[in-house]
Amino acid sequence: MNSISGLEDDEISSFFESSPPLKNKEEIVPKLNRFIELNFSGQGGKRIVCVTSGGTTVPLEQRCVRYIDNFSSGNRGAASTENLVKAGYAVIFLYRRGTCQPYCRFLPDDPFLECFEFPDANNIRVHASHSEAVKMAVLDQQVAVAEGCLLKLPFSTIYEYLQMLRLIATALKDVGPCSMFFLAAAVSDFYVPWTSMTEHKIQSGSGPLDISLAQVPKMLSFLRSNWAPKAFCISFKLETDSKILIEKATKALQKYKVHAVVANELLTRKEEVVVVSSSGNVVVRRDSDNPKSIVEDNLIRLIVDRHSTYIKESHT
Ligand code: PMT
């Protein structure tokens, strides 16, 4: 694969050099290495996937009070993680703090307040109406964590997300074709560079706010060419105008040389997606005659299948 241009290279280096350092890097790196060791080299020779989920924030102040957010509930990432664990993958779930978690999709928004009740002062119990959902959430999550096939790493800002994605990608380099990136997170396209950001809360007394946002360098090309060139890579394209969706996804496929782009429209994203790849476009829908079916059941089946073919072809 061709390496990306020097200009992009410089933009990416200067993004990382000017980013505030990742606070808990010393904790993350050994956790990540242990997880990869256990799942790939150790026990099982499992495939490992990094699922990104939720939206990144762009702080407007260094001691952040205000920020710009990117829309994503985290549902796609959480549901895909569950299906990938079921398919035998070890999953690194890189998620935005506070967004939807694997195995928790059927819990109410405020599980602690809505699921539990106190029959008397010394006891707490799950309300009968939520007991099945709580039991499944606890059991499934405990099994995934106990078997060592789910590692959850949270982020909030664009700085944290991209630094963590780079750490994960470089740590997965030796896993080669058996590694996958499933990039469902909604990543900020614009940001305020840390070095030009005001330290303290912006004062409203000074009149209308006039800020200039720089473009976040696209990391996909770099992930493909440098960080993890042998990994199977799936990116996403979200649009609100269905007329431009497939064209934009096709352009992204060609530009970033990913293996497939999952195209989705905001309003219909839970009903159908289109998997755009060099072998053609495939519409994937949830089974409308089964109320429990979700689009990720069929999407992950297709992606796992494509990944298997990719691994086979990489060995020949
Ligand atoms: O979470 P849900 O509510 O369930 O919704 C799921 C979803 C709609 C958020 C998800 O299916 C989805 O489409 N996620 C990607 C949305 C997006 O922000 O697309 P984009 O066009 O900005 O980015 C396209 C790709 O480029 C993404 O895979 C992203 O990881 C990558 N990117 C983006 C910006 C950037 N600076 N660098 C990147 O590498």
TrEMBL record:
It comes from the Eukaryota. It holds the Pfam family DFP. GO terms for biological process: coenzyme A biosynthetic process. InterPro entries: CoaB-like_sf, DNA/pantothenate-metab_flavo_C. Pathway: Cofactor biosynthesis; coenzyme A biosynthesis; CoA from (R)-pantothenate: step 2/5. The keyword Nuclease does not apply. Residues 48-94, 169-283 form the DNA/pantothenate metabolism flavoprotein C-terminal domain. GO terms for molecular function: phosphopantothenate--cysteine ligase activity. Keywords: Coenzyme A biosynthesis, Ligase. Belongs to the PPC synthetase family. This is Phosphopantothenate--cysteine ligase 1.
